[in-house]
Amino acid sequence: MEYLSVADARTRSGLRLVLTAGVPGPWGEAAKAVFAARNVSYLPVEQQAMQPNEELRDWTGHRNAPIACLDEEPPLTDWLDIVLLSERLGSGPSLLPDGEADRALSLGLAMAIAGPDGLGWHRRIEMTVAILDEPETTGTQLRAILGKYGVRPGSEVDSEERIVSILLGLAEQLERQKALGSSYFIGGAVTVTDIYWACFSMMLSPLPQDLNPMPDWLRPLYSAVSEKVDAAINPILIEHRDRIYGTHIAIPLDY
Ligand SMILES: N[C@@H](CCC(=O)N[C@@H](CS)C(=O)NCC(=O)O)C(=O)O
Predict the structure, then answer these.
(1) CATH architecture group of domain 6-89
(2) Helix H or strand E segment including 133
(3) What is the 64 CA–ligand 1 centroid distance (Å)?
(4) Tens digit of pLDDT for each residue in 145-163?
């Protein structure tokens, strides 16, 4: 993907979406998929993973990704704000169910996937906690960044339990839907929940290299899951995400 530099992006108007260049950051991939499904176009802007990104901070007040910057409006970093922006700007079928209870269920499950204390949050802890043991990270900026992501010695113990619980809950919901004749998380059509699960599943069981061309160092990190987590990846979850990528998200991934 071609990215604008922050300096160039600042001179442009319209929607600019800051994304971590070169890796499939799950929050960024989900934002891209949601905007695409809602026919919202944007200019991609480069963020560098785990770096200070000072120019970006100067522009938006934030250093990580994704960040959605629409004209002079305040930059949006939260997954929910990005989803609601796609609803506001986009066209075609909504990615949120009609009824309030179904809408709450859809957003609640997406929060379990992408929100604080959710699947992505805890999976990141599992993947990065070992960095704390590397002597060169002592006192560095990287250590400070990890601290903001809740990465502390021993924090991975709770993470495994939380990841398993979320995976079991997601699989239960798909089983319930299957019994009703639907292959989507809620109702009979694609919602943000389907898209967020598909994108975040890359952190546990990535699509093959030809569809998700990750750098060599990243694939083993994303793929290595504990036995307990592996046992909680019900095949219905993988069948679902393959179907969602096959139908609702552009592949091969381009980042
Ligand atoms: N602000 C986002 C979470 C964003 C996030 O955690 N981004 C991470 C993963 S894509 C990131 O930018 N990591 C690289 C970095 O921190 O430089 C939300 O609340 O939904």
Answers:
(1) 3-Layer(aba) Sandwich (3.40)
(2) none
(3) 5
(4) 999 999 999 999 999 999 9
